[in-house]
Amino acid sequence: MSKPSDLVQGTLDMLILKILALEPLNGWAVSQRLKQMSSDVLGVSDGSLYPALHKLEHRGWITAHWKPSGNNRRAKFYSLTRLGLGETERGECEAHEEHLRSPARPRGTSIICRYSHLRHG
User: DSSP string spanning 33-84?
Assistant: First the structure.
Protein backbone atom coordinates (compact mmCIF):
# COMPACT_ATOMS: atom_id res chain seq x y z
CA MET A 1 0.00 0.00 0.00
CA SER A 2 1.22 3.52 -0.81
CA LYS A 3 2.34 5.82 1.95
CA PRO A 4 0.69 9.27 2.13
CA SER A 5 3.99 10.89 1.13
CA ASP A 6 4.09 8.70 -2.02
CA LEU A 7 0.59 9.87 -2.91
CA VAL A 8 1.53 13.52 -2.43
CA GLN A 9 4.73 13.09 -4.47
CA GLY A 10 2.86 11.30 -7.25
CA THR A 11 0.30 14.08 -7.31
CA LEU A 12 3.02 16.74 -7.47
CA ASP A 13 4.70 14.86 -10.33
CA MET A 14 1.42 14.70 -12.27
CA LEU A 15 0.70 18.40 -11.66
CA ILE A 16 4.17 19.33 -12.92
CA LEU A 17 3.70 17.19 -16.03
CA LYS A 18 0.30 18.74 -16.73
CA ILE A 19 1.74 22.25 -16.35
CA LEU A 20 4.66 21.50 -18.67
CA ALA A 21 2.29 19.98 -21.24
CA LEU A 22 1.08 23.54 -21.86
CA GLU A 23 4.48 25.17 -22.41
CA PRO A 24 8.14 24.97 -21.34
CA LEU A 25 8.72 26.80 -18.04
CA ASN A 26 11.49 27.37 -15.52
CA GLY A 27 11.15 26.11 -11.96
CA TRP A 28 9.99 29.45 -10.55
CA ALA A 29 7.28 29.70 -13.20
CA VAL A 30 6.14 26.12 -12.49
CA SER A 31 5.80 27.07 -8.82
CA GLN A 32 3.82 30.20 -9.72
CA ARG A 33 1.56 28.23 -12.06
CA LEU A 34 0.82 25.72 -9.27
CA LYS A 35 -0.25 28.59 -7.02
CA GLN A 36 -2.30 30.18 -9.78
CA MET A 37 -4.08 26.92 -10.67
CA SER A 38 -5.00 26.32 -7.06
CA SER A 39 -6.06 29.91 -6.25
CA ASP A 40 -3.01 30.24 -3.97
CA VAL A 41 -3.90 27.12 -1.98
CA LEU A 42 -0.94 25.01 -3.15
CA GLY A 43 2.49 26.28 -2.35
CA VAL A 44 5.43 24.00 -3.12
CA SER A 45 8.76 24.63 -1.46
CA ASP A 46 11.97 24.61 -3.48
CA GLY A 47 12.95 21.58 -1.38
CA SER A 48 10.06 19.64 -2.94
CA LEU A 49 9.79 21.20 -6.39
CA TYR A 50 13.38 20.92 -7.63
CA PRO A 51 13.92 17.31 -6.52
CA ALA A 52 10.63 16.44 -8.28
CA LEU A 53 11.82 18.19 -11.46
CA HIS A 54 15.16 16.36 -11.32
CA LYS A 55 13.41 13.03 -10.78
CA LEU A 56 11.11 13.64 -13.77
CA GLU A 57 14.13 14.60 -15.87
CA HIS A 58 15.99 11.46 -14.77
CA ARG A 59 12.98 9.33 -15.79
CA GLY A 60 13.00 10.95 -19.22
CA TRP A 61 9.56 12.52 -18.78
CA ILE A 62 10.92 16.07 -19.09
CA THR A 63 14.05 17.68 -20.54
CA ALA A 64 15.86 20.77 -19.31
CA HIS A 65 17.68 23.50 -21.22
CA TRP A 66 19.39 26.67 -20.03
CA LYS A 67 18.16 29.89 -21.62
CA PRO A 68 17.50 33.52 -20.65
CA SER A 69 14.42 34.14 -18.53
CA GLY A 70 12.16 37.18 -18.67
CA ASN A 71 14.58 39.20 -16.55
CA ASN A 72 17.61 38.30 -18.74
CA ARG A 73 19.04 35.86 -16.22
CA ARG A 74 19.87 32.31 -17.22
CA ALA A 75 17.29 29.80 -16.04
CA LYS A 76 16.71 26.12 -16.60
CA PHE A 77 13.55 25.62 -18.66
CA TYR A 78 11.75 22.30 -18.49
CA SER A 79 9.80 20.73 -21.37
CA LEU A 80 7.60 17.68 -21.55
CA THR A 81 8.93 14.76 -23.62
CA ARG A 82 6.89 12.25 -25.61
CA LEU A 83 7.43 9.78 -22.77
CA GLY A 84 6.18 12.41 -20.31
CA LEU A 85 3.11 13.04 -22.43
CA GLY A 86 2.34 9.32 -22.32
CA GLU A 87 2.72 9.38 -18.54
CA THR A 88 0.28 12.29 -18.21
CA GLU A 89 -2.26 10.43 -20.31
CA ARG A 90 -1.73 7.28 -18.24
CA GLY A 91 -2.32 9.32 -15.08
CA GLU A 92 -5.48 10.80 -16.56
CA CYS A 93 -6.72 7.31 -17.42
CA GLU A 94 -6.05 6.04 -13.90
CA ALA A 95 -7.94 8.99 -12.43
CA HIS A 96 -10.78 8.47 -14.88
CA GLU A 97 -10.97 4.74 -14.14
CA GLU A 98 -10.99 5.48 -10.39
CA HIS A 99 -13.90 7.84 -11.00
CA LEU A 100 -15.69 5.07 -12.92
CA ARG A 101 -15.33 2.73 -9.95
CA SER A 102 -16.99 5.32 -7.73
CA PRO A 103 -20.58 4.48 -6.81
CA ALA A 104 -21.46 8.17 -7.23
CA ARG A 105 -20.49 8.35 -10.93
CA PRO A 106 -23.17 9.30 -13.46
CA ARG A 107 -24.84 6.42 -15.33
CA GLY A 108 -23.68 5.83 -18.87
CA THR A 109 -20.11 7.03 -18.24
CA SER A 110 -17.56 4.86 -20.04
CA ILE A 111 -13.81 4.54 -20.11
CA ILE A 112 -12.71 6.92 -22.84
CA CYS A 113 -8.94 6.87 -22.55
CA ARG A 114 -8.03 3.17 -22.50
CA TYR A 115 -6.15 3.42 -25.82
CA SER A 116 -5.27 7.12 -25.88
CA HIS A 117 -1.54 6.29 -25.85
CA LEU A 118 -1.91 4.89 -29.38
CA ARG A 119 -2.59 8.38 -30.76
CA HIS A 120 1.04 9.42 -30.14
CA GLY A 121 2.70 6.22 -31.34
Answer: HHHHHTTT-----HHHHHHHHHHHHHTTSEEEEEEE-TTS-EEEEEEE-HHH
pLDDT digits (tens, 9 = 90+) for 38-96: 888 878 889 999 999 999 999 999 999 999 988 889 999 999 999 999 998 887 666 65
Q: In 3-state terms, what secondary structure has residue 100?
A: helix
Q: Which amino acid is at 65?
A: H
Q: Are 24 and 46 in contact (CB under 8 A)?
A: no
Name the 3-class secondary structure at 25: strand
pTM to 2 decimals?
Answer: 0.72
Q: 76, 22 in Cβ contact below 8 A?
A: no
Q: Are 66 and 76 in contact (CB under 8 A)?
A: yes
Q: Would you say how long the chain is, in residues?
A: 121
* Amino acid making up residue 59: R
- Put the strands of the sheet holding 25-26 in their side by side order: 25-26, 74-80, 62-68
Please name each of the domains of the chain with its CATH number: 4-120 (1.10.10.10)
